[in-house]
Amino acid sequence: LPPPRPVRGVVLVGLMGAGKTSVGRRLAAALATPFVDSDDEVERAARMTVPEIFATMGEPSFRDGERRVIARLLEGGPRIIATGGGAWMNDETRAAIRARGAVVVWLRAELDTLVERVSRRAGRPLLAQGNPREILAGLMEVRHPVYALADVVVDSHAGDRHETVVARIIDA
Ligand code: S3P
């Protein structure tokens, strides 16, 4: 039997490179539920890329847009939402997600795994400021305690198949 469709939204949080978008897309297919990526939606609304938004309007504007986009997406019926890694760190965004009753999943990965995965795609302004490994290690320290406020934690190890991680989320 296929898993039942979620009646609440599912919000994936976690660091850059955790696999929120790739896993989220496949989770959505498995649950026959629409998928959206908050970075894509912010880019569409702003008609600029994430690096352009950071460069021209600054990170606070990006965070503001991100919160509004996520809140709006959660109002349109159950969806699987991959958020940008900083979304859940923002008090107002967290409150907006909580207020809409979504299930929050922390996709957790080890530092080596994150470093390897972020090297596959450019366009992350926070990592362009220095050594990605050092930046991710610093973000881990600050962000892990806050990601831990999620409803469920699911590990994504190097070499795990997307389907394996999807199955872990559905089980959780
Ligand atoms: C960010 C993560 C990015 C994007 C922006 C900032 C962060 O999304 O929202 O570059 O603060 O961790 P991904 O987690 O999808 O890379």
UniProtKB/TrEMBL annotation:
Keyword vocabulary terms for this entry: Amino-acid biosynthesis, Aromatic amino acid biosynthesis, ATP-binding, Cytoplasm, Kinase, Magnesium, Metal-binding, Nucleotide-binding, Transferase
Reactions catalysed according to its record: shikimate + ATP = 3-phosphoshikimate + ADP + H(+)
Coiled-coil boundaries: none
Enzyme class: transferase
Top-level division of the source organism's lineage: Bacteria
GO BP of this protein: amino acid biosynthetic process; aromatic amino acid family biosynthetic process; chorismate biosynthetic process
Compartments, as annotated in UniProt: Cytoplasm
The keyword Amino-acid biosynthesis belongs to this UniProt entry's keyword annotation: yes
Residues bound to ATP: G17, A18, G19, K20, T21, S22, R124
Residues the entry annotates as binding Mg(2+): T21
EC number(s) on file: 2.7.1.71
Family designation: Belongs to the shikimate kinase family.
Subunit structure: Monomer.
Job description of the protein: Catalyzes the specific phosphorylation of the 3-hydroxyl group of shikimic acid using ATP as a cosubstrate.
Protein name: Shikimate kinase
Gene: aroK
Full-sequence portion shown in this chain: 17 to 188 of 252
